[in-house]
Design brief:
It is a single chain. By secondary structure, the protein is of the alpha/beta class. The protein has 12 helices and 10 strands. Strands 1-5-4-2-3 form a 5-stranded mixed sheet. β7, α11 and β8 form a beta-alpha-beta unit. The N terminus is likely disordered.
Length: 319
């Protein structure tokens, strides 16, 4: 296989799939009843973790949105990168209680294979023969954005020529702190070379580029924390090819020292958005920006209290 050159790839978003209570249940029911795996996926998915069910359904929507036949892409050219923070939390809580209160022999044979958080994307990789590579990303809050970043870099390097990237979350186990603020749902984005989309007469939603860095909390809280944040942000923006006045900025973060330093370090007005427990919210903002071509380019900045920061430039395709 001859690897394409970086200049020839030009990754674009060709498909978007979203599965959240707001999409499937107008009442916004968040107990899990809003998603019926039988209605959304058919038979044979009962014992999959919820996050994996959501991702499968979001992928189906994204594939339909491309209007293309995945069979036209060789299996070894298809790849997947998925971000999750809490996608296996409830399952692990059940594992722990079963072993502590009973015995490991009581663990369900259908659930035990999902012992690793990296396996959230395993079923979607198997069902769609995504054999180029499979990567799980788990950085706090920004894992979904980093999944886009790592996957797009792999496309540019010629490791694949079709990518499924996104985020999938399900609520934290009831025993975990913060479970009431858990995210629930999935986003799937199809990334392809612009030339491939144009050749079949397809539609590109736009381009998404991401650069990430770490701003440790003690550094952010230091006297020069804002200056350090500004320097790191400057390097990320340079990597994105941005200079001059910034486009509108959406900052997804909580009330912590890292988020405050990043907000100040951007040196421009930002619109702050609350962050749920998980990595889904920043990617949902990316999909919203892609679906607002009239709004022009935007920056989506995800920030975690632990120091993880991802700067995402979204350039929707004008229609």
């Amino acid at each position: 296989m001859t690897a394409p050159t970086t200049a020839a790839v030009d990754p674009v978003i060709s498909g978007i799939g979203v599965v959240t209570p707001e999409v499937l249940d107008p009442a916004g029911e968040r107990t899990g009843a809003w998603f019926d795996h039988r209605a959304q996926l058919g038979r044979g998915y009962k014992y999959l973790p919820q996050a994996s069910q959501y991702l499968l359904a979001a992928t189906t929507r994204a594939l339909a949105d491309t209007g293309a036949d995945l069979a036209d892409v060789p299996e070894h050219h298809r790849a997947v990168t998925v971000g999750t923070n809490n996608g296996m939390s409830r399952l692990y809580g059940e594992f722990d209680r079963t072993v502590i209160e009973g015995d490991s022999t009581l663990l369900s044979p259908a659930s035990v294979p999902y012992f690793s958080v990296n396996l959230v994307g395993s079923r979607v990789a198997m069902e769609h023969a995504l054999k180029g590579y499979s990567l799980g990303v788990h950085s706090p809050r920004v894992a979904g954005l980093e999944a886009l970043e790592h996957g797009s870099r792999a496309l540019l390097a010629g490791r694949a020529r079709w990518l499924l990237a996104g985020a999938a979350e399900s609520p934290l186990d009831w025993s975990e702190p913060g479970s009431e603020g858990s995210e629930d749902g999935a986003v799937a984005l199809i990334v392809e070379p612009a030339a491939a989309v144009a050749a079949r007469g397809g539609r590109a939603h736009g381009r998404v580029r991401v650069r990430s860095f770490l701003l440790p909390p003690p550094v952010a809280a230091a006297p020069d924390g804002v200056g350090t944040a500004a320097r790191l942000l400057g390097a990320a923006l340079d990597g994105l090819g941005l200079s001059g006045p910034l486009p509108p900025v959406r900052l997804v973060g909580a009330d912590d020292a890292v988020t405050a330093a990043v907000a100040a370090g951007l040196g421009t007005a930002v619109t702050r958005y609350p962050a749920g427990v998980g990595c889904l919210t920043p990617v949902l903002h990316v999909t919203e920006a892609l679906r607002e071509p009239g709004a022009g380019p935007q920056l989506i900045v995800g920030v975690a209290a632990q120091g993880n920061v991802s700067v995402t430039h979204v350039a929707p395709q004008p229609h």
